[in-house]
Design brief:
Length: 481
Amino acid sequence: MRPQRAPGQAGATLLLFWLVLLGLTTGSAVARSSPQDSTLLLPEVMDSIRQAYPLIMAALAEKRSAQGELQAARGGFDPMLRVRGDASPIGAYPNGRFDLVLEQPTPLWGASAFAGYRVSVGEFPDYDGKLVTNQYGELRAGVAVPLLRNGPIDRRRATLQRAESSLRLADASLGEARLLALRSGGIRYIDWVGAGLRRQIVQSLLNLAKTRDEALSVRVQRGDIPAIERIDNQRALWQRQGLLVSAQRGIELAALELSLFLRDEGGQPVVVREVRLPTLLPPPERSDFGAPERVATDQKTAQESRPELRRLAQQRRQLEIDRDLAKNQLWPSADLSASVSQDFGPPGYPRDKTVLDFSLSLDIPTLNRAARGRLAQAEAALQKFVAQQRLIVDRVNLEVADVHSQLAQAVRRIELAQREHDVAVQVESAERAKFELGESTLLQVNLREQATFDAALRRIDALVEYHRAKVAYEAILGREG
């Protein structure tokens, strides 16, 4: 229980409130520059979470894995160099052949290009005349283009698209992990501050009993009151010391839980010292929490900013890629290729003209049950995911509405708790004055003090609830603070 403030103290207290509020929203540079025994502010906790929280580090590792996956998928378009040598030294047609080909797949409608060089020596039968080259060999180049199947999409490009989506998904997952950690760490910080404020109230209640015990000792010695009054006060004294022990345990537990988020440069948890406890929580800001227009605006903001919704969008994109690939594999295969070749050698060799070749190959599936089955699976998976995505969007809207309700009701609770506390202080002061005049009993004074104590705790609980909801509000809107 706190003593009643003089009117002149109100302005100073309000100024101190706003100074702490400014500290809670000041940039991290100010928090980092403060000494280790200064008041711990929320930005310092948030900075520590961003830099060293293990789940964020794990999400960063997952993002690096996605970057590796993307690099591997891009490797599907790496050029391929093939070299082959054949020799038939003994037989009716002794000969030798050397062939070198460089192939380059491209993401352009599944087309691939190639260039090569080959040379042959020796004798060849007439039916192997295509193996014969001029003395200096043959240069050739060409391109192959799938017209239907593997044209709009193929496995190589689908793998690349999925890997690109996986990188964006990993980035969204990193944001989700960071947002969740900041929300949890911010709430743990508010709980720690609240535990410190509760101990302040218990300590002031204990101090009242200690001060009264000294006064009662003098009055008992003078014979003004019976000794049982002091004995009853000592009972209250021991009871309040027990409350102080419980309040101290609350601070220590809150500091341990906060240490999961507050870490040193090496990433080790730091159990913050009590000397760094703030002495108050800022009062609630005046706002239109709960207003339908504000709720609708915040719901739109959350849908645009929440990282898990971006993650879901990328997961849906991957399922759409699988569906498109499965649908494309139902089509017949129609591959068009063109190549040009030129032999080189001294005059008189048989191949001295440029050769241009075209070819068209068709592959028409009959039952095609495998492709149809894969398409049915892909479409069902996509439909299932879309339904789940809709539910998560609805849940985000519900979270926004719920946190607005929490904030609006917390502000109202703070106002009522403050009024209750002010009245309880007045009644307690009046009862204490009556006791000094001998018109009341110590039991009545203790009851009044207990009522003020309970009202003070309810005021702190309402403040803690408001600030917890404010931290949750920022995270629900997708803002990292």
